[in-house]
Write a structure and sequence with these properties.
The protein is an alpha/beta fold. The protein has two domains: 4-226, no CATH class; 251-404, Tetratricopeptide repeat domain (Serine Threonine Protein Phosphatase 5, Tetratricopeptide repeat, Alpha Horseshoe), CATH 1.25.40.10. The chain is built from 17 helices and nine strands. The chain has a nine-stranded mixed sheet. A hairpin with a 2-residue loop joins strand 5 (132-136) and strand 6. The longest helix has 16 residues, at 333-348. The termini are far apart.
Length: 407
């Protein structure tokens, strides 16, 4: 192999590459710790299509900061696969997660939380020799493992894409080696199909100390890395604290805000609020959250983080005030998760009607998750509305069966 591997700092940059290379209905074999298929609202899909029609690069539509939460950009690291399907660059996406004993259950766990697509996923779901197959937004999605990859039928021109966080978790704890992956790719005749690599350092998913994996992998494949003259990536100490790679203390919070977060504007204040919430500095989290909102960031992540921190404290009434700050759209995964958290907090307060609203709203968006349906059943039982309780209990029972029977 003599070709150069194209590298990205964050995975969402791959979409601009696909468009620039003229991809149409391609097959991608992706090694990644995350599925990267969060739902994108139709208005943002339309904006991306309009940008392409005007000849603009989609790289300018990619979030400049992984943790930015506003409408300035159309996509990022967590949802670019969804947009790739909508734009037609990819029609088949084969996901190889880190080693898992049950790839079918792993894929179901990811997609059953995808708001608004539960029925499509369930209708098209089928087990395969390699793991499972389903569809999301018309995109064919399959899951496989290193052990089952050779049984997978792939076109000769399949594009192999590797996110380096596949090799280890946020703290650098490894699960697979470069040599192991290289052996499997060679056995499948796919070594020359490896085309793109992603670092995932800025987002915190890969420790900076493991950036060497790119060079190691390229060398093992007999290739080299494409250097495009990009400026150095943003390196934030805050991410080390949030991922647990470095201890976090309240005394270091203000220094981080002054030196690296406040200069980033809304997204930086949002990140400061998340760290403050993790540190149980909730008054400071409130101040940072407001700063983020004033600067135009939705700041949903810190609102959810604060709600979680307050639930852990047993401060359920205060937690609900933060749950209600995680605004829509209801296709946002964080909104769905906040509704479930709200149901838990409301039940603790014996606010059963409110709990029923939270739980039912959550379950309507993710009908194949048993947890919100169970919470709704509990709330309606407490309210003495037994028919409604029985209906939600039945839904929870169906969802508990999972992909093998939950349909």
């Amino acid at each position: 192999m003599t070709n150069k591997l194209t590298t990205f700092e964050e995975h969402g940059e791959a979409l601009a590459y696909q468009v620039e290379k003229g991809w149409r209905g391609e097959t991608v074999l992706c090694f990644d710790r995350h599925l990267d298929i969060a739902v994108i609202p139709p208005a943002r899909v339309a904006r991306a299509k309009e940008a392409l029609e005007q000849g603009a690069s989609l790289l300018a539509q990619h979030r400049d900061l992984p943790f930015r939460d506003d409408e300035q950009y159309t996509h990022g690291l967590d949802d670019f696969v969804y947009l790739a399907a909508a734009l037609g660059t990819v029609s088949r996406f084969v996901w190889v997660p880190p080693p898992t004993p049950d790839p079918e259950a792993t894929l179901w766990e990811e997609l059953s939380w995808l708001p608004g697509h539960g029925e499509e996923v369930a209708r098209s779901w089928r087990p395969t020799r390699c793991g499972a197959y389903t569809r999301v937004g018309g995109l064919q999605i399959e899951v496989a493992t290193l052990d089952t990859l050779q049984a997978l039928s792939l076109p000769a021109d399949v594009h192999v894409d590797i996110d380096l966080d596949w090799f280890c978790d946020e703290r650098g704890r490894g699960e697979s080696s470069v040599a192991e992956l290289n052996d499997v790719l060679d056995a499948c005749g796919l070594g020359e199909n490896v085309e793109t690599l992603c670092y995932s350092n800025v987002s915190g998913f890969l420790p900076w100390s493991h950036r060497y994996l790119a060079e190691h992998l390229a060398a093992s494949l007999g290739g080299s890395l494409e250097q495009d003259g990009r400026p150095p990536p943003l390196r934030l100490q805050t991410m080390d604290h949030l991922t647990g790679r470095a201890p976090a203390h309240p005394s270091s919070l203000e220094k981080l805000i002054d030196e690296e977060l406040a200069p980033l504007g809304g997204p930086g204040w949002s990140l400061a609020a998340v760290l403050a919430a993790r540190l149980q500095e909730l008054e400071r989290a409130e101040e940072c959250w407001q700063q983020a909102r004033d600067a135009g960031d939705r700041a949903r992540w810190p609102a959810y983080a604060a709600a979680c921190a307050l639930v852990q404290r047993g401060a359920y009434k205060e937690a609900l005030s933060w749950v209600d700050r995680v605004d829509g759209p209801p296709d946002a995964a964080l909104w769905v998760q906040s509704q479930q958290l709200g149901a838990v907090a409301a039940l603790r307060l014996n606010a059963d009607r409110r709990a029923a609203r939270y739980a039912s709203a959550c379950s309507e968006r993710v009908p194949f998750r048993p947890e919100p349906a169970k919470l709704a059943a509990i709330a309606y039982h407490r309210l003495g509305e037994e028919r409604a309780a029985a209906r939600w209990h039945a839904r929870a029972e169906r969802a508990t069966l999972g992909p093998r029977g939950g349909r």
